[in-house]
Design goal:
By secondary structure, this protein is mostly helical. The protein is built from four helices and no strands. Helix 1 runs antiparallel to helix 2, helix 1 packs antiparallel against helix 4 and helix 3 packs antiparallel against helix 4.
């Protein structure tokens, strides 16, 4: 297995742990705490690093030729949107029901993309 794929998979796994922990803490408590914000920001950073490793491994092709690449880009974009929601709600500390539902839906899409990548290997 290429080195960039292994490093990218490691970054994606760390992102998964950060995403899942941060989002589930928000969903179960209904509150946006400092920990949630830190975990979401770290998750997006690790996701970007992992995506960059996968792009480098593909020879620098930014436009994916497979379903996994497209769903990965969509999941990353939605995670950035979710992170913006978390950042906006960190002041009042409350996560609305709509925000929590959106977060869970995005997490499910992201886990689907993550899982598809490992099945594809």
């Amino acid at each position: 297995m290429p080195v960039f794929v292994m490093i990218g998979a490691l970054f994606m796994t760390v992102a998964l742990i950060c995403y899942a922990t941060g989002i589930l803490m928000t969903v179960f408590t209904g509150k946006v705490k400092r920990k949630n914000v830190i975990l979401q920001v770290l998750a997006v950073c690790f996701d970007l690093l992992g995506t960059t490793c996968m792009i480098v491994n593909s020879g620098g092709q930014l436009v994916p030729h497979e379903f996994h690449g497209w769903i990965g880009y969509i999941a990353l974009a939605l995670m950035v949107v979710d992170m913006v929601f978390v950042l906006r709600h960190r002041v009042d500390g409350l996560a609305s029901t709509r925000m929590r539902i959106f977060s869970v839906c995005v997490l499910v899409l992201w886990v689907t993309s993550y899982s598809y990548g490992f099945v594809k290997m």
